[in-house]
Amino acid sequence: DLGFQVGIGFAGEVATAVVGVIGSIILARTLGPSSYGLFYIGLAIADFFENPITGWAEACKKRITESEFDSREAVGSVIVVTLALSGGGIPTAYLLISALSQNDLLPLMVPILFVPLSLYWSLKTILSGKHNFSLSMWAKVIRTLLKVILQILFVLVGLEIWGMVAGTVISAIITVPVLYHWINLRPSIPSRDSLVSIAEFAKWSVPNGFVGTGLSKMDIILLGWLVTASSAGNYRVALTLSMPAVFISSVISTGLMGRVSNRKSRGLEWVSDINNALSFSSILSIPIFFGSIALGDLIVTTIYTGQYSGAGLFLVVLTLYQVLVTQTTSLSSVIQAL
Q1: pLDDT tens digit string along 176-219?
Q2: Would you tell me the crossing angle of helices 285-304 and 229-242 to the nearest 10 degrees?
Q3: Which residues, in sequence order, are CB contacts of 287 under 8 Å at separation 6+?
Q4: Is residue 165 a contact partner of residue 113, using CB atoms and an 8 Å limit?
């Protein structure tokens, strides 16, 4: 039942946010805007390199929701594509970032981050296409909890930004077996027909992933490149505070694509699911936006101290953006399902 899975997933989103905010407060205060911002610039760049892999996983998610497709071959193809593209992605990322950036840390950070994160996000995407999709949210809770604990430990012992990187990588690696267990499918070698079928959808999902990453990550990259890493740090703490606005919509959209695709493949009615999703998606985002207008600066400086005083304006803009996101994510999920 979609409503039951959404409820479980929403609880997972809340748990993730609570852990994430607590961790961000400790880490942001300890590292300061510049180092904190630089880490998230590197993470955003890594997201671009993950897109061919996560886009393929999105295509596999679409196929496993179709009753006639062999789901085991979809899982197998994700593992094969991850290993194959990671081999070429590591040197490509290092050389490209070295040529475009004068920062010595980014060319090393990005290749280290993108391989384990690619596998984590790919398997999480597969899980989100199954009937128990709410478990993908709880996988996120597990990873976030591990990541925050490890990052705090590593940062407090003096590893600074590399402590952030190590916590992110190790937590992703540990969570991969959990995702595999919850997917509960033994991967098999994909046939040529299966690969062609997945590729038919991947030719849309991969470019769409690049566009989505550009829209969601390019802002923090440009802030770091054109302004300073400190501005990126201010932006990141504001983004963290704005995330509760999309709790409900992100959970709904996670399961909506698989549900609509499955019902459509069986010739069942699915329009009512879209109407319900749009009706409930913005319940949190609208009041959060108006609250940020009234109390944005006070909220940021109280939680993160005065060194992040420039984040108040970012918070207002981002909460307005989240209002728009809550209405578009469900529609985007339906388009991908058709």
Answers
A1: 999 999 888 888 888 888 888 888 888 888 888 888 777 778 88
A2: 130
A3: none
A4: yes
Residues 40 and 264: their CA atoms lie apart, in Å, by 39
Three-state SS at 335: helix
pLDDT at 268 over 60: yes
The predicted structure's pLDDT at residue 163 = 95
| Token duo for residue 244 | 């509760």
Helices (H), the chain: 2-64, 71-100, 106-128, 134-154, 161-183, 192-222, 229-242, 247-265, 271-280, 285-304, 311-337
What is the pTM assigned to this prediction?
0.78
Dist CA 162 CA 125 (whole Å): 27
How far from 316 is each of 38, 181, 283, 296, 328, CA to CA, in Å? 22, 40, 17, 7, 19
CA distance 231 to 234: 5
For tokens 């039951």, what's the residue?
Answer: 4
Per-residue pLDDT tens for 64-116? 877 677 888 888 888 888 888 888 888 998 999 998 888 889 999 999 998 89
- CB-count exposure of residue 47 (10 Å: 0-12, 13-18, 19+): buried
